[in-house]
Design goal:
six-stranded parallel beta sheet, about 25% helix, about 675 residues, binds CIS-heme D hydroxychlorin gamma-spirolactone, alpha+beta, Catalase_immune_responsive, heme, ten-stranded antiparallel beta sheet
Amino acid sequence: MSPTGAPSADPSAANAQQGAYLTTATGVRIGDSDHSLKAGPRGPTLLSDHHLREKIMHFDHERIPERVVHARGAGAHGVFVANGAASEVSRAAVFGKGVETPVFVRFSTVLGSRGSADTVRDTRGFATKFYTTEGNWDLVGNNIPVFFIQDGIKFPDVVHAAKPHPDREIPQAQSAHDTFWDFVSLHTEAQHHTLWNMSDRGIPRSYRTMEGFGVHTFRLVDADGGTTLVKFHWKPRLGVHSLVWEEAQLLGGLDPDFHRRDLYDAIESGAFPEWDLGIQTFPDTPDQMFEGIDLLDSTKLVPEELAPVQVIGTLTLNGNPTNFFAESEQVAFHTGHLVPGIDGTDDPLLMARNFSYLDTQLTRLAGPNFNQIPINRPHAPVNDNHRDGYHQQAVHGGVAPYGPSSLDGGCPFVAGADEGAFVDVPVTVPEASKVRENPATYDDHFSQARLFWTSMTPVEQEHIVAAYGFELGKCYEQAIKERQLLALANIDDELCARVAQGLGLPAPERTVHYDEPDPSPALSQVGETWPTDGRTVGIVVDPDGDLESVARLRETLLEAGLLPLLVGPHGGDLGDGLVAQRTFATARSVEYDAVVVAGAAPPAPDAVPARDTEAGAATDPRVELLVEECFRHSKAVAAVGDGRAVLDALGVGGAGVTTGDTGADVADDLLTLLSAHRVWERFGTTV
Ligand code: HDD
């Protein structure tokens, strides 16, 4: 069991940590693990020290290769409960009404190494392993519904272009460099995915506030063999929210583990993250097209306005890993891990993935037996005829690991469909010659990028323009910037002109023409309100101020499911039983969704250098920075009592700023502001 009482991999299964005494790997108790065996206290170390040899040998080999992509990530245990809505279109047991299936989910960035920062601009992985009664099903998705390439044969190209430059191995975990923009500007089918990366989706607020997508079209099979094409969507119950770019950059230094910490803390505190799983369904027609959209082209999405997402169940993450390496690092996902009732399609991207995910584990987990590692073990009984290989854990009985066999009672037997066998759908393959070609529908690289752009509100468009300005501004090669501007011209002339202006380059003319797509308002993150559970509020406390008001505000926020953190001029007791969780020295705005200045905040003794304000009585400069940053990042700002003078001195006011005599006066406003995530109008654009 994990510390939260939720299910996790059983450590005893790995024969680890049994008994109270320190032992060698072979179970011999050890009397001294701190001193090597030497010829006298100052003499040479003896080769006969078998414990030293074993301890150092094992340490020397602790590291395994990181994932070739998605190296940086964090996982959690949970449960998926189906509502039965998918049973009509799939016979999979996991979709049966009320069926509860244990899951392990791993979120990740794509580009960075294992130790890189969480908040970089990148696509996020959202991979789910369902331990169903019929075997493991892995839904290996991303937080962006489209991909850079249409054919998996180009995966090494896009990854080589996006990873750090091979000569200096910089920049780490960034797409803001020449080789990335060189590739995507030459290879224009990547423009749709790239536009999503440049939008707020590229810098999520939290793993808990990301959508997830299966990306490809999958094929569901019902009890009678009937088929339906589907796309999978994960919808976060807390809504889709993002950081702003400056926050993301600051967090890269101030808290590179921001997303990992957020996920762990939320689960630990019982604020279990939840997502609804939904499907868009399409008739399984021979052409596999829907409303003119090629369902086998993973650079295209199907707008929700054309095919609504139907909820088929809910995922709750309720258990943190007990051991990061054993679970989050060793978990191995594979798009070919399918169960009866869920099948793939001929999307050439998916086909290549079906090869790649098995193959990569041979290097990463050093052999073909990775499904025997505790986190990967199916909960369904396993009776395969695979034998031997590195790290074999099983002691197989019998003499006939082959079939057909007349020994061992002919066991194991193959099952029929009515006994739960995976039956391949007899899809008709069109008569064709072998070719290295794309269908003509794959030639449209821009219409859906434009669809995304025109679906954004002005404030979201502003963020996109700024993101391109940053990324291309980091490139050195003029020709690459110019080529990318041409791609932008083919998406939208205003987008192109605004980015070009920032780069100091002329905006090129559009060269590709296509029908104007209808916008999809469902793609925007702005305009709705969401639950505020788990939102973090920094409360700046003056130990000489109205502590009763602070205590009541803290209580109200806790009761509303938020996480109020008291920020004091010093650590420890602030008076009236209030204890500082942060100090002026350790607090920084990026940790909070809102800030409350609950009293005067004169410079603490460790403040250097204090800045005089017009009001004469200087505020601690770190509190000024806290307020200024929260304001600049369009977060809710509140002031109570003498805290109002701090805001006045800084000129902080207007939309999203609430003040009062006591905490009780600002609590409701704060909750309303937080439910909209940002004070959108403060970004300077009408939304
Ligand atoms: Fe992939 C890892 C998602 C295309 C090859 N991929 C990986 C992970 C996610 C995705 C979430 C991390 C899994 C984990 O947490 O362990 N990948 C995607 C999506 C794609 C996609 C949504 C397009 C729709 N991937 C893709 C292609 C290929 C790969 C086209 C190769 C042809 N992906 C891999 C891999 C990785 C991987 C090399 C690295 C580590 C691993 O598999 O286990 O096999």
